[in-house]
Amino acid sequence: MKLSPVDAVVIGAGAAGGIVAEQLALAGMRVALLERGDQQPFSATGHDELHSQRTTVLGNAFGPDDKNYVREVMDASGRVSKVRPSEGGYNNIAACVGGGTRSYGAMAWRFHERDFKMKSTYGAPAGSTLEDWPITFAELEPYYAKAEWEIGVSGKAGANPFDAPRSKPYPMPPLPFNTEATLLSKAAKRLNWHPFPIPMAINSVEYQGRPGCVLCPHCVGFACEADAKNSTAVTVIPRAIKTGHCDLRTNAIARKIVVDDKGKATGVEYVQNGQLNEQPCRLVIVSCSATESPRLLFNSATKMFPNGLGNRNDWVGRNLQGHAYTGAFGLFEEEVFDGMGPAASVACCDFNHGLPDGLKGGALLSNEFIRLPYLFSRSALPPDLPRWGLAHKQFVRKYYKRSAGIKGPVQEMPVFESRVQLAPELRDSWGIPTVRLSGHRHPHDLEVGKYLAAKAEQWLREAGATRTWQTPPGLGLSGGQHQAGTCRMGNDPKTSVVDKHCRIHDVDNVYVVDGSVNVNNGGFNPSLTIQAIAYWASAAIVKQQRKPA
Asked: How far apart are the first and last CA of the chain?
């Protein structure tokens, strides 16, 4: 069914898409916001740990579902496996209104200035496609500030001595330290490091009509019962709808972007309630994730673009990256867990840059989110401990409140061969070709990971841990909830997919605005950077649309 035209279709109501929809609607544009999932109120999942954390730290309680979705993963030997969203290899991003921001841990980091000019700073290691961004931190800084105030971030300006200058303070004070964070902060200072409270997209006080955090331990992997966690589902998307210019359509699965014989997008085909619809529009903004956005571009191939939109030079789907998480765990004689969430609250940025031995980039180090019992018994155990039986039970009973973890998201070196491509024959339940993931991390990521794991272990020992063990990363396929890089931005169409304002080089009315445009992924959780880019791109779109035809 062909629908009445709108000005813009935004595909994906997540971290970026919700912002773009709101900004265009505020500018008076008629927007159709398509979301493949549904609304996910707290009552839909509650505090069900088995449901929310049975596969990864974010699980797939917020979608996508095993019934309708499937992917292929190719391992290093070339063996191809089918994976469902409930399996870790799927690399899922939540499919619901708010996307991953509905269940994320809500760390709200700015990248550092050097993160935007990594190649100029370090040079690209052999086998890597490391490049500088086409924009600078200074250009993006006002949009970081806008994201912090519009979404809502609690933090302490100036507490991190490695931060670049900021134009505004945080809108809310930081969340309080719990027992574990207090212990670790004192230990870091004894090491002459620089601990500070993590900036969080969580209300520490009442903000924008929503209450402050109730400090429950069910944060990462769960919706917030108080709506103190600042998902786009409770911030910008309701404001977009309130304008009267934005129509949110849930359970709407985008099939392809419709392109005319002149190479201009004219609409979007999507399936909703078993019906195929075509939504005509003047602009298309793709905000599906770094694995789903390439899929949509591939599935929108035409005679003019036989390999997919934006893929004239074979860069769509390339450079898939996430974060090679590294760190250590430690056991203590005294209880360090007091049950006060969100737990991840103290960090050090002493090792984001300037590492020895030619190591490039680095990562923040911070204490871990609270590991509820099921996740603890899977991911926080010494390597020599049985995973079942009496010894396992005794360990969990004794050390559940006497353990702590330090982790860091290593800034990965992008690799051209790490990629998203269409699976040759596999389709989802709507008959839409799905994707195959393949590739590996760059060996340099492991070297940085080993260095930082040792630093994490040193921090825990200084805090009084009596036993520690490291958890460095491996060489396997990257991605996960921090997936990025597959539609990178750049000035040269031969080595990038979109320009500095996120518009596809070859199609002047299609934009990609999500983590896939990230040239590299920083040593931080990327959600705030994704949102700052969404504000940056939205401003450019609105300015362009206001020009005379």
From this structure: 29
